Amino acid sequence: MPADRPFLLIHGGLHGGWCWDGTIAALAARNRRAVTFDLPGHGADQTPRANVGITDYVSRAVDALERLDGPATVVCHSMGGLVGTALADARPDRVAALIYVAAVVPDDGDSLSADEPGVSHVVDRSEAEYFFYHDCDPVESQAASLKLTPQPVRPLIEPVRLAQERLRRVPKAYIRCLKDRVLSQERQRFYAERHSGTLDTAIDTGHSPFLAKRDELVTLLLELEATLSSGDPGFKAL
Fold this sequence. Notes:
The chain is an alpha/beta fold. It has helices at 21-28, 54-66, 80-90, 125-131, 138-147, 154-157, 185-192, 209-212, 214-230; strands spanning 7-10, 34-36, 72-77, 95-101, 120-121, 151-152, 172-177, 199-203. The chain has one domain: Alpha/Beta hydrolase fold, catalytic domain (Rossmann fold, 3-Layer(aba) Sandwich). It has 9 helices and 8 strands. The protein starts with 6 loop residues before the first strand and ends in an 8-residue tail after the last helix. The model is unreliable at 234-238 (pLDDT under 50).
């Protein structure tokens, strides 16, 4: 039953598991358990960024998933969609539902970028506040921008390998962020339509609803989880 199922939350580029702290607390207030983790080279993780590739991301996510008791509802944000998709493809028996939040949705062989120089790249604070947090509380926006860490490059240019047949068995939903300054609505709709049967929903925020409208996001996640578990395709959202 969904009420007994944990959430596994996967962060996006430059971020760490810290970005989900408020969401975990909001879910706990509704008697739901949620956990997160730092991808290698992100947040507090000290893996040298030159050593991090897409397979390291996926291995870390598989480890986090397997530490849970039973299947989980996996929620992935932004670049974390690469990881969440590969995780569901690798362990469809442990992913009860997959929910994308303004996330990249790859096909087999896709990479996020054709080529980028260097080992990692950074975003300065003003750029972060403009693109990621423009509709968030200014105090939270500033605090979040100061926690960002350099983004390893290799996971962005390496292809994601997917068997896809297993992936098709996992129920999926996509939450578009209507005020997003990172992913256009056209790009988000493209990703939402990537896999047949994905529920296409939306929230009226920028790229970071876990800060901008946390309670509204949690309500939507719970509604989507229930709908995906029931097999009812009739869910309607903004």
